[in-house]
Amino acid sequence: MDNQLLTTTQAVDPVFLFIFAACLLLLIGITAAMVWFVIRYHRSRAPEPTSQAEGSLWLEIAWTALPTLLVLAMFYYGWSGYLTLRSVPPGALPITAVGRMWSWSFQYQNGKTSAKLYVPVGKPIQVNVESRDVLHGFYIPAFRIKRDAVPGMKNHVWFVATRPGSYDIFCSQYCGTSHSGMISTVEAIPADKFAAWLNEGPKGAPHPGLALLEKHGCLGCHSVDGSQKVGPTLKGVFGSKVPVTRGGKPSVVLADEAYLRESILAPTAAVVEGFPPIMPVTADLSEADLKVIVDYLKGLK
Amino acid sequence: MSSVQTTTAAAGGFWRDSGKTGIGSWIFSTDHKRIGLLYLYSVLGFFLVGATLGLLLRLELMTPGRTIMGATTYNALFTVHGVVMIFLFIIPGIPASFGNLVMPIQIGARDVAFPRLNLLSWWLYAIGALVVLTALFTGGGAPDTGWTFYVPFSARTGTNVSVAVFGVFILGFSSILTGINFVTTIHRLRAEGMNWGRLPLFVWSLYATAWVQILATPIIAITLVLVIAERVLGTGLFDPGRGGDPIMFQHLFWIYSHPAVYIMILPAMGVVSEIIPVFSRKPIFGYKMIAFSSIAIAAAGSLVWGHHMYTSGMSDTAVMVFSFLTFIVAIPSAIKVFNWVSTLYRGSISLEAPMLFALSFVLLFSIGGLSGLILGAAATDVHVHDTHFVVGHFHYVMFGGTGFAFFGAAHYWLPKFYGRRYKEKPALIGWALMFVGFNVTYFTMQVLGIRGMPRRYYDYLPEFAPLNMVATVGSWILAAGLIIMIVNLWRGLFWGEPFQGNPWGGATLEWSVPTPPPTENFEEEPVVSHGPYDFKGAGVP
Hints:
The complex is a heterodimer of chains A (301) and B (541). Chain A has 301 residues and is α+β, with helices and mostly antiparallel strands. Chain A has six helices and 13 strands. In chain A, the strands form three sheets. In chain A, strands 3-2-1-5-8 form a five-stranded mixed sheet, with no helix packed on it. Chain A has a five-stranded mixed sheet with strand order 4-10-9-6-7, with helices on one face. Chain A is elongated and about 90 Å long. The two termini of chain A are 48 Å apart. In chain B, 67% of the residues lie in helices and 1% in strands. Chain B has helices spanning 2-7, 13-16, 24-27, 32-60, 71-106, 115-137, 153-156, 161-188, 201-232, 246-280, 287-300, 316-344, 353-376, 378-384, 388-418, 424-450, 465-495, and strands spanning 420-421, 497-498. In chain B, α10 (246-280) packs parallel to α12 and α15 (388-418) packs antiparallel against α16 (424-450). Chain B is globular and about 65 Å long. The chains are: A alpha+beta (301), B mainly alpha (541). The interface between A and B is large, with 87 and 86 residues.
């Protein structure tokens, strides 16, 4: 890593310290003055007011001018820190973060995708933040960076992980039922391990249907191992009898191919008992991909 | 309300002198005092609803994962908590209740300029509130969008957003009409000798607020209509797939909703500017600067909405401009704080309930305002935006600020209108519990935000668990204080000791009329010959 490079954390934290310190001094001053006046001039000690002063021009000028200078300093300091957040260092590694309800998917230059954000230690990373549905917010507290994922718009952030480790990624912009479950991590690993990871093929070649489920964000709500998340698990669904609500009336349907297709294409037509009717329509799903997914679900026992 | 009439035995004045009783004498009354009390009971009722929801939210967050409710319920509850507290409690809160009760008397008028329009305002409020409540129990159920109704989520969720925002649309008209009424009243109905330099600072604050209500509210109205159009007609104005822009919604929303923050806080500042001089027996320090800063806040506050959007994708130039303007609007607030504190200097201070609420307002508002500087600075805002830091910050300003001023106003003015008073000791206990519980709850939230916990989070990582437990315990202390305070006020105002005359020595006109004031307020047209804080000139102790 270039030793001159200021990390995002190093750019933001001094601003925090400066404003906190100034605020703390002001707050202590205001509180101390109030407490002192209330004790000293309490009616038991001061039965009559000893001043009827209605103001002081000099004091008003002083406590208009000094706070003005102080807040202008805060503005300038905050703005210059923000500029560092916006200025991506040259040679940063571009990775695209795609948010959808309710998962993140990270796409690397070679087309590889992952659910966790793998990055090489010491290399600046430019994350291009996109959304497939509603607003999301890409937030890494450890690096003090945050940017909304807005459908139809390209936003970006950058950061550099100076030490190997795992750092939380949250969705900061409210996006519905499982907003708080839309979390992932940055996995900062040494550059050589990262290169190896990036170029290794998928292990044991998972079913292309599973890859599609991950690509379209289905696994944010549906598990394939039987565990319950926001939505029902997909394991063993095919061929089972499912209690659903259709048109406001409860019924039990046999989960055949037609049911699976309908549940993907028109998710709120028949909603499984005990689950909220919140599944969005998957917009960019081709007929061929749909067939692959349904075939995969048929075999998921 | 007829039971009120019989139990308020000490009360005469406007409670009795019209000879009318029963519910009709209230909901069809054009007397500003009766309308003020109608508003008071309405907003207080909704405050209690909102507070109960808030307590349930804190209870859910006490432990990670599911504590008492599921994620969809939680999301609906924080939305309803926000909508109820903002649109049904705090925006109409002080202006429509205490403003209506006190302002006409303070300027020496018999009523507001348009008494029937005033009644219509309350009816629009009541109808709007009913529509909002209807939205919770019909269609797809309570909205789950957050009170900000951000698109595209609000355009596609299956919950009852359209009906809820239509209710808020109606509430907007109530607010606009109150604004028009107050501006006209303050311009046209001041008594002889009540020149602008003798206007009580509460009236100045209502005047500034009223202009914001008139000018900003139409923008939220049209924005909410566009959300309904988006949902019902599919207009696509906010849909990027059809040439629309979700960021544009945020601009429109905050062009109103940021000035609305000043609709909420300015009247509270006015209340505090009344209470502090009376309980210090000293003229307010810097009358002109406080009056001027109300106008300055209203004007500059209309230009800072973009500070809610630093991370939205808005241009960096816009971030710079909005950050700069945000810091400018901090200055008049600071001036007010310094003047309030200076008023105490060399006074004769009495720490009764209204004063305790007013002083804690100054402290809590300062903490809220100073944490606002973190949010105004672009670099630091990026980290804490959309986290619990923001939740803590605005509760300091809105609840610690406006809420505490509202309760201060209740302890200060309501005995005047009921002719009975509350007990002092339970009032002090209630205040102390609220003050402690408040800080435990909301300061902890600010720390959680600094540590990175986003807001509107149903579930959280284990690292946030201890502080969430602390905040929840704080909310119980706060609730205990609230209950003691409200029970004490209720019992005192209906069954307490008689309250007569001007025991605190206020010099504004409401303290010169009989207790409770008669329907016509003044027995003869007042002629004002001294300033609102001229305690010697008013001939009071």
